[in-house]
Amino acid sequence: MEIRECKWFENFKENWISGQEVQTSQKLYKDAKGFYESIDESLDPQTVMYTVYTCEQGDPKTGNLNWGLSVLEPVTVKGECNVTRGHFHEDLDCDEIYVCAQGEGFLLLMDENGKCTAEIMKSGSIHHIDGHQAHRLVNTGDTQLAVLCCWPSTAGHDYERVEAMPFSARAFKIDHQIIWKEGE
Description:
The chain is mainly β. The protein has a single domain, classed as Jelly Rolls (Sandwich), CATH 2.60.120. It is 5% helix and 46% strand. It has two helices and 15 strands. A six-stranded antiparallel sheet has the order 3-4-5-13-8-11. It is globular.
């Protein structure tokens, strides 16, 4: 019998996901300014807003599952809570699962008509995302928000659709309370 090491290892106290097939990318504030209601000139452009670790399996056309982890920093932009870029899937029939591993925040969802809803995220919460909904993470806490993700390799990411129809709800942290602003 062959005994092998696992492909990936999650160590939430040291280096998140590591392994030979893990790809890592970071979103800096200078590249994320457009995600927020206003620009904060006092925020260092090199500030890390979030890091994404992905493990993509094989040919995207074969229907394999991808695995990832998004880690959002506890940063605010003029009071607005830190968010990921957000996206629809290119294949709207592909759902996704999120599991909150650490921190607190929201999973912000937007339907195809632009209506937003939010689900509370806390350590251990599991979230099913219908493929017809755009989704983004919102860190409302004072620590990193770490969310595990699993999605079909055929899903794709449609960022342009969210740029054309941005999320209409934004979370702000004011006096340690979360205030939602809707509209636009």
